[in-house]
Amino acid sequence: MKVHKVYKHPSLGAEAVKVGFSWPAAFLNVIWMLAKKLWTLAGLWVLAYIGLAIIQDAALKSHSTGAILIVLAGHLALALIPAFKGNEWRIKNLTKRGYEFMDSAQAATPDAAIAQVLKKSSGV
């Protein structure tokens, strides 16, 4: 079971955000950011990938081992930062968009966490 934080918007419904590491953000970072409406971060990540591509091209042409290691470290950072911070970014974004924290729940899926919290809040 995973811990999810459930947020509710007056007109947009409820969203559940898993606490901790995000595997989808690790492997699909820019696509994941776009799907989660993290527009600014997605744009920054695209710019970072473009910058890394330029550095990588120069490093490969110069056969600079140090520059190639920097590029590899950059790619690793661009994968790991969203994996570790992505769910926190989602929470900040939801709050900024008018969602309010309802409760936390242990559930296998986000939908199950939402159902559990909504049931609990309705007193059923």
Tell me what you see in this structure.
With 124 residues, the protein is of the alpha+beta class. It is 65% helix and 18% strand. The chain has 5 helices and 3 strands. It has helices spanning 23-27, 29-35, 39-62, 65-96, 110-122; strands at 2-9, 13-18, 100-107. A 3-stranded antiparallel sheet has the order 2-1-3, with helices on both faces. It starts with a strand and ends with a helix. The model has no long low-confidence stretch (mean pLDDT 94).
Question: For the report, how would you describe the main beta sheet?
Answer: 3 strands, antiparallel
Distance between the termini: 22 Å
Approximately what portion of the residues adopt beta-strand conformation? 15-25%
Name the shape in a single word.
Answer: elongated
Rg from alpha-carbon coordinates: 19 Å
Total DSSP E strands: 3
Number of helices: 5
Helix content: 55-70%
Task: Specify the oligomeric state.
Answer: single chain
Mean pLDDT: 94
Overall tally of domains: 1
Low-pLDDT residue intervals, each spanning 5 or more residues: none
Secondary-structure element order, N to C = EEHHHHEH
In terms of structural class, how would the helical and strand content be classed?
alpha+beta
Major β-sheet strand ordering: 2-1-3
Summarize it:
By secondary structure, the chain is an alpha+beta fold. 65% of the residues lie in helices and 18% in strands. It has one domain (2-122).
List keywords for this structure.
single chain; 124 residues; alpha+beta; three-stranded antiparallel beta sheet
